[in-house]
Amino acid sequence: MKIGEIVESQAAAREEFLAALVRQPSDNPPGDCNPHAALTASLIEELGFTVERHVVPETLVKAHGMISATNLIIRHCFGEGPTIALNAHGDVVPPGEGWRTDPYRSEIIDGWMYGRGAAVSKSDICSYIFALKALRDSGASLAGTVEVHVTYDEETGGEIGPGWLLAEGLSKPDYAIAAGFSYSVVTAHNGCLHLEVAVRGKSAHAAKPETGHDALAAATAILTQLYAERDALRTRVSSIPGIGAPGLTVGLIQGGINTNVVPDKIRFRLDRRITPDENPAEVEAGLRALIAAAGDLPGIRVEIAQILLAKPLTPLPGAERLAETLCRQASAVFATEIGTSGAPLYTDARHYAAAGVPIVLYGAGPQSIEEANAHRADERIFLPDLHRATLALALSLAELLAPRADLIPQDETLLRKSFEVAKAARAAGCHPFGALLAGPDGEVLMEQQNGFLPEHDMTGHAERILSGRASVKYGASFLRRCTLYSSAEPCAMCAGAIYWSGIGRVVYGMSEHNLKQITGDHAENPTLDLPCRTIFAAGQRDVQVVGPCLVEESRALHEGAWARN
């Protein structure tokens, strides 16, 4: 069976799997998560997978304010190749009040499943496992390994979940995808700094307050400056869409002795969201200086302790391939444009990035945190989104792990030469595309700039023109040993020309999907977003394809080229 058919046939099983996960509480706090890990492991084993249970040492669990935690790893090797880890968490915040249904009943109303963890992120556990199951059951010939990491401390920082698995060397993935929603691929997110501030003064009888040093008055002065800083932060919007401005919240405050006593100690905690544009060390140093200056009052001592520092997620090299593949496959499955964005929250993804693993966030869920009712009453997931996300993930993994010809030593050099051809085309007033043909020994046989001008030929693509020239000059038996290098992925028209010419290998820069994000609906280049591999796969002879490669360099060729007048 094909992957799509398998995913469709398992819809009911997927819904029951998710319902079972939701019915088992895993609130954190208090963080007694072993029962949920045991249930999850047994359900996954029933699907025919081997589940590794990695029990976190009790002392470490207690040090992080939890009762029990067991992380799960499911590995399936399809063949030699890279390892892609899929990480979702099974712990959830307590349900709170105001629910229309029992938060642990998994009730389905109008196609939505309600329950704590239905969207964040037990649905991702479900999608990841069933995407892997679809790949396994399809018998697809893949090169690489898929791991699913089910961890149990995301709500308290992830240190004994993904952080611990990676630090202990229990997993060493090449790429990772972490829990997210279905309508955007998140490539960056905020970090977070938690500080605890203790303001110490001297107690005194309320009848003689001047004999003491009022810690609450001092704390009020500090808070006034912090709230002024919060207002100023709202103007510093991140350059990354979806991130927004930095935030500052004072979430906890306690202190005082009695109503008739000048308070000698006030303690409060603040949460400072750090955007990917900011330097975490500079943010912390700035806050410490602001607090110290505001609290520099007679008889007052201020102590500041770092409780948490979660660094922002910024894309690592290699993450663009994950994002591009997921965006393209999800756009096709959901029949709507799905692109990349940032997110204002912070997640376990940062642990993979800190370990040098390229990672993006994508999974099953509604279009926004608000629509999912995440971390509030009536959390829910639209079940058709669960099924579509599973298919998008399965197809993306199949593409990412598809056997592919590796770059040979001269490929990057020759691909960059095609970039130079594209630059020359742009300098001549044409569109920034270029191609060249290299013989079996790497000798450049032909170069071709884009041919839109002078006659405004919409079919004047560099690869099409070059393929026609090569077909006339060389025989098909020779061209099968040649490689066409293109500054961007050949479109459907050009892929057809390459196929008919007999050229045996293609190496390209950025993908058509990526190009479409740049050109949009520009009248001179209404990009046809269809992978060249799809065209070649429909033929009766093999064409080796390597790409996307040198994506950022390829994208740079188009900066400012498609501006509307």
If helices are DSSP runs of H or I spanning 4 or more residues, what is the number of helices? 19
List the uncertain runs: none
Main β-sheet, spatial strand arrangement = 1-2-6-3-7-16
Question: Any idea what the shape is?
Answer: globular
What profile does the largest beta sheet have? 6 strands, mixed
- What's the gyration radius in Å? 28 Å
Mean residue pLDDT: 94
- Into which percent range does the helicity of residues fall? 25-40%
**Number of strand elements:** 22
Description:
The strands form 6 sheets. Strands 1-2-6-3-7-16 form a 6-stranded mixed β-sheet. It has a 5-stranded mixed β-sheet with strand order 19-18-20-21-22, with helices on both faces. A 4-stranded antiparallel β-sheet has the order 11-13-9-14, with helices on one face. The protein has 565 residues and is α/β, with parallel strands linked by helices. The mean pLDDT is 94. Helix 16 (492-501) links the parallel strand 20 and strand 21 (505-510). Helix 1 (3-9) runs antiparallel to helix 12 (383-400), helix 2 runs antiparallel to helix 5 and helix 7 runs antiparallel to helix 8. The chain has 19 helices and 22 strands.
